[in-house]
Design brief:
Layout: H1 22-36, H2 52-62, E1 74-79, H3 82-103, H4 106-112, H5 123-126, E2 129-136, E3 138-140, E4 146-148, H6 152-169, E5 173-177, H7 184-189, E6 195-204, H8 222-225
Antiparallel strand pairs: 1-2, 2-6, 3-4, 5-6
Length: 230
């Protein structure tokens, strides 16, 4: 929690300096790409348990992400309790049924056809862990006074990227779930109204017979996603 007494600029030497050769940098960049291109969104989870400390360490990694004014406007709720997961699935599927029954519009539903999704979300129960990511619209000083957070969606989005990479690096698969609205999660998980649920990340080990849609392996080539000005 921030204290008003500490709101001053105090420069320190860069504590974690990396000194790599150009060759080492290239090897590291390629190795990380090779690791991340093996990441898949998976809907079929094994019942193999995942130790709590793996989830905690991955969330701790997400907490190192950059954020507007370093306010770190995020909170994570990690859930393994079957009863909680069942309640979340039921509430999420209620929203999803409205989405697939016309709320989304024909164009959006057409775009989802190659992915093979529908209103059923069994992974919200079968995954060993659900991580609900909340964005914090404002924070509080240690005396209870509110302060505004800045670049909240951007900051939380970056942190979620860190989290997905950390979970993949730990050998787990993930599925991001973003029903809208998700306000039921605040009451269910006891989170304050200053927080907005941004996504649910289901994570665990893939089932033996896990499938992914073929279209998910089609990625835009570098030439389509990069423009270089030099």
């Amino acid at each position: 929690m921030f204290s008003r007494d500490h709101l001053k600029f105090e420069p320190i030497d860069l504590p974690d300096r990396m000194d790599m050769s150009d060759s080492e940098m290239n090897q590291a960049a390629v190795a990380f790409y090779e690791k991340m291109k093996c990441r898949h969104t998976v809907r079929d989870f094994s019942d193999r348990p995942v130790a709590r400390h793996i989830i905690e360490t991955s969330i701790q990694t997400a907490g190192t992400a950059p954020s507007g004014a370093n306010h770190q406007p995020w909170h994570y709720v990690a859930i393994s309790d079957p009863a909680f997961k069942k309640r979340i699935r039921e509430a999420a599927e209620e929203e999803e049924r409205r989405f697939y029954e016309g709320g989304a519009g024909d164009e959006w539903l057409k775009a989802l056809e190659p992915i093979g999704t529908d209103a059923r979300k069994p992974h919200l129960e079968s995954a060993p862990w659900l991580i609900v990511v909340f964005s914090q619209r404002w924070g509080q000083f240690d005396d209870g006074t509110k302060f505004k957070n800045y670049y909240v969606p951007e900051s939380v989005g970056i942190a979620c990227g860190f989290l997905l990479a950390a979970l993949h690096h730990a050998g787990l698969v993930t599925l991001t779930h973003t029903p809208n609205p998700m306000s039921f999660l605040n009451e269910m998980l006891g989170r304050p109204r200053s927080e907005k649920p941004m996504m649910i990340i289901a994570t665990g080990h893939p089932a033996i017979d896990a499938k992914v849609p073929a279209v998910a392996k089609i990625k835009k080539p570098l030439g389509e996603i990069l423009t270089v000005a030099e």
